[in-house]
Specification:
By secondary structure, the chain is mainly α. 86% of the residues lie in helices and 0% in strands.
Length: 81
């Protein structure tokens, strides 16, 4: 009976000291990598935000060109408008 217990204990100790820590480390490393990537929903939201930002940039450029024509020197006055 004692030999049977040792026969199960030796592989269990080897598993717990060598295999399990490596297995746990690899599991959480792969989980961290997958969590770091954006989901499809997040990518879609990012594209939408980029589209909106580009639209806002075009509007700002248009407003600045209008101000350049209507109020020359507005850039030098800074926040005095």
């Amino acid at each position: 009976m004692e030999g049977l217990a040792i026969a199960f204990m030796v592989p269990a100790v080897v598993f717990m000291t060598l295999v399990a820590p490596i297995w746990i480390f690899m599991h959480y490393r792969s989980k961290q990598r997958s969590d770091a990537a954006l989901s499809e929903t997040e990518r879609s939201e990012m594209r939408e935000l980029e589209h909106r930002a580009m639209g806002m940039l075009k509007r700002i450029e248009t407003l600045e060109s209008i101000l350049d024509v209507q109020t020359p020197g507005w850039r030098q006055r800074g926040g005095d408008l």
